[in-house]
Amino acid sequence: MQCRFCAILEAPAGRILREGKYVFAILSDPRLMKGHVLVIPKRHTEKLSELSAEERGELMDEVISIEEKLLTKASGVDLVQNYRPFILENDLKVDHLHMHLRPRELNDAIYEKVQIYERGIFTPLIEAEIQEYRSLLAD
Prior knowledge:
- With about 140 residues, the chain is of the alpha+beta class.
- It has one domain: 2-Layer Sandwich (HIT family, subunit A), CATH 3.30.428.
- The chain contains 4 helices and 5 strands.
- The protein has helices at about 5-10, 55-70, 110-115, 125-135, and strands spanning about 15-20, 25, 35-40, 75-80, 100-105.
- A 5-stranded antiparallel sheet has the order 1-2-3-5-4, sandwiched between helices.
- It is globular, with a radius of gyration of 17 Å.
- The model has no long low-confidence stretch (mean pLDDT about 90).
């Protein structure tokens, strides 16, 4: 099965909003809200660590540029990148690295449907966990 994001590059540029040397941006379909943008590397890869320095630089520059433009229409922007190899590719999951930029407002549709439950998910940190991850992330 061909990658859905790679196929966009082979089709007429109708879905592409912006395009650089290494990345392109499209509206997400399906979308969570109006203005939900995806920034996608042109080279098929699944993890950020697989990108070259040039690809990472252009990806982040494009994300920042689009975020600033979205902030002229919204109060905030959620920026998300998921790497979930434990989930099979499906209608909502694509095995091609991409960054989500979602314009946000207080009490918007995502808040009303999902994030209202955030408080019950988060738990306080304990010192042992801090030490465990300090060791894991140390150089």
